[in-house]
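It would be a great kindness if you could assist me with a short task in structural biology. I am sending you one protein, given as its amino acid sequence and as whole-number tokens for its backbone shapes. I would ask you to consider whether the tokens describe a fold that such a sequence might reasonably adopt. The full record is reproduced below for your convenience.
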Amino acid sequence: MQKVDLIHDISFNSLQNDGDLLESFFLKYRSLFSICAFFSIIAFSIYAQSIAIFAFYVLFACVGLIFSIFQGRTGVKIFEIVFSISSVLAILFYFIFQFQYGIPYQSGGSDSLAYETFATEIKDVVHSYDAQAIGYTINEIYHNSKGYIYLISLLMRLSDLLDGYHPMIARLCNVALLSGCSIITYSIAKKILLSPKQAFNCAIVTGLFPIMIFVGVQSLRDIPIAFMMLLSVHFSISLINSKGFLKGFFWVLLFIPLFFIIIEFRLTNAINIGIVLIVAISVKMFSIRKISKIQVLFALICLFGLYNFLLRYDLPLFIDLIGRLDSSQSALSEGLDRAGEGGLSLILFNLPVPLNYFGSLFYSFITPLPIIYTDNIDWNFLSFGTIYQFVFIPFIFIGLKNTWRSGLMLPLLAMFLICFSGYVFGSFTFRHITYIVPFAAIYGVIGYEKYKKQRWVIWPSMFVILFFLILVYYIIKF
């Protein structure tokens, strides 16, 4: 396989001895995780009086193990660890939601409940996939998640062959896909020449990052979308590394079904995949190994223009773009922060242009706010993840700085920047962080290995900053 140099000033062959602690911990207790998950699922199946739950758990485990075999023994171990831990947490959050909201759905009935309600309506009406028929049946012609609704309806029909559907079945499906995200992250990390140990750490961080688990243990479309976007980056890097026209053409062909599937889950993400494919083909055609600053600037302008053309059906002028961004910021400024309370976010989103964009960027680093939530117990789990996320931000930026000129890394960089900017300056929906985490994990590992000797200076400094920000939040609130 053709190998393209990752970056010009760092050798990943020297990074193989660090990160042993994380790897050894999970590998040491891997069997314990599996046993706990197995008996937890049995106990929950008895509690729910559902054979289907246990049957689907076994099914997803078998399919996942087959998928992970392609990455060798380490791939199997990664799947086993992430799938086992996430399955136990899926049960735990089921009861947390039940206790807190009265029904086993986050916020007492979020999008996950809506997806399952729609799936119930179509499961006996729409058998083969028909987007128009689904839209008419659920009375939402332009619903943008028909593909995910249909997926749940398939699970419902299959479970009817046993003793009926239970919400845990869709959640276990997402848990399996989350484990698949870890496997693909591991493969991508190896393809860009990280050592096996560092690739393992990227995979574990991806699969067990709090917000990934929190979204993954619910019947939401975001984890399946993240899985498909990771596949697109994997295909792109494989295309760049391929030798010969036929092998390259094979990787391009794989984008076709992926593109049409993700359209039915979320159109915007299909555009992301199209851009990544264009980037990969360009790198391959022009044999780009190391790009200049001018090339990066030109590529960003072209990609940004193409993205807006596809998304808006026109190429907006910069002044129009500012107006669109300001409109998005205005919508955010009228809302509440991610904790469901007014305060810091309202101040940052209401800053004058262009300071409000920097405010959104800053707020994204500490979202969900790392505070103690008394009304929403489940958010404390996300709060812990924000702390971890915040202290590693410098390493992510270092990783970006040291790899942005690598041709091999361009598909990963393009996907990361598109998803990150779309989240910060667009939706600001916390679930969309799941699109970013796998790529941030890779950049974070690269940055950590570059400056790991300074970690005892960086980490305390970040904790001090975080403490100060939390203090400011409470001052504003009270």
About this structure: The chain has two domains: 23-220, 288-478. The first helix runs from residue 20 to 28.
